Amino acid sequence: MELSDLTNSTTAKNVVVFDYGFGNVRSAERALAHVGARVEITRDYDKAMAADGLLVPGVGAFAACMKGLREARGDWIVGRRLSGGRPVMGICVGMQILFGRGIEHGVEAEGLDEWPGTVEPLRAPVVPHMGWNTVKAPEGSQLFAGLDEDERYYFVHSYAVRTWELEVTNPHMPSPKVGWATHGEPFVAAVENGPLWATQFHPEKSGDAGARLLRNWLDTL
């Protein structure tokens, strides 16, 4: 499918970009609108709950993002949406805060704990990890559907989750699909887990490949 066809592939979906003061909300808005979504930037509870999809961006320190999210009741909104099977997508630090905790400069902060795991400093010769990198997509991925394995995505981060800890023991429950990237060491770059999806990279800054990823998400809403 060509990029020019993406906006016509499904009926437009309503997406709220959650505005809690810690994300590139305008970039996300433009990228989603470009692939055919009806987008609103807001922290309004009713609008965030009613949207077909909720996108949670994030830029800055883990602890500061969590503080801002809680002050905007975003932690409660994310939890309520997920308990009802309503789609949520996190980007960059908006992905990191979905894990149990983050450690930055020796300071530990609690995350949303949707997934077990710790956000820690990347162990790499050059930090931050800034620029384009490939992602090893999981088998059967919907997020990376239609994308080549050598596609590159835009990363800006110094911290990451280095191990995936969630174990699904119920044979009737699907296992999360986890994508990996490498910068000095492997780290979690993307997750698809029922209604909760996330990327460590910035799809809104990743050109045509990022647009296809966002379109793939919209197609599931």
Automatic annotation (TrEMBL):
Pfam families: GATase. It catalyses: L-glutamine + H2O = L-glutamate + NH4(+); 5-[(5-phospho-1-deoxy-D-ribulos-1-ylimino)methylamino]-1-(5-phospho-beta-D-ribosyl)imidazole-4-carboxamide + L-glutamine = D-erythro-1-(imidazol-4-yl)glycerol 3-phosphate + 5-amino-1-(5-phospho-beta-D-ribosyl)imidazole-4-carboxamide + L-glutamate + H(+). Keywords: Amino-acid biosynthesis, Cytoplasm, Glutamine amidotransferase, Histidine biosynthesis, Hydrolase, Lyase, Transferase. Pathway: Amino-acid biosynthesis; L-histidine biosynthesis; L-histidine from 5-phospho-alpha-D-ribose 1-diphosphate: step 5/9. It comes from the Bacteria. GO terms for molecular function: glutaminase activity; imidazoleglycerol-phosphate synthase activity; lyase activity. GO terms for biological process: L-histidine biosynthetic process. GO terms for cellular component: cytoplasm. Its main location: cytoplasm. It is found in: Cytoplasm. Gene3D superfamilies: 3.40.50.880. Residues 16-218 form the Glutamine amidotransferase domain. The active site is at C92, H202, E204. IGPS catalyzes the conversion of PRFAR and glutamine to IGP, AICAR and glutamate. The HisH subunit catalyzes the hydrolysis of glutamine to glutamate and ammonia as part of the synthesis of IGP and AICAR. The resulting ammonia molecule is channeled to the active site of HisF. Heterodimer of HisH and HisF. This is Imidazole glycerol phosphate synthase subunit HisH. It comes from Streptomyces melanosporofaciens.
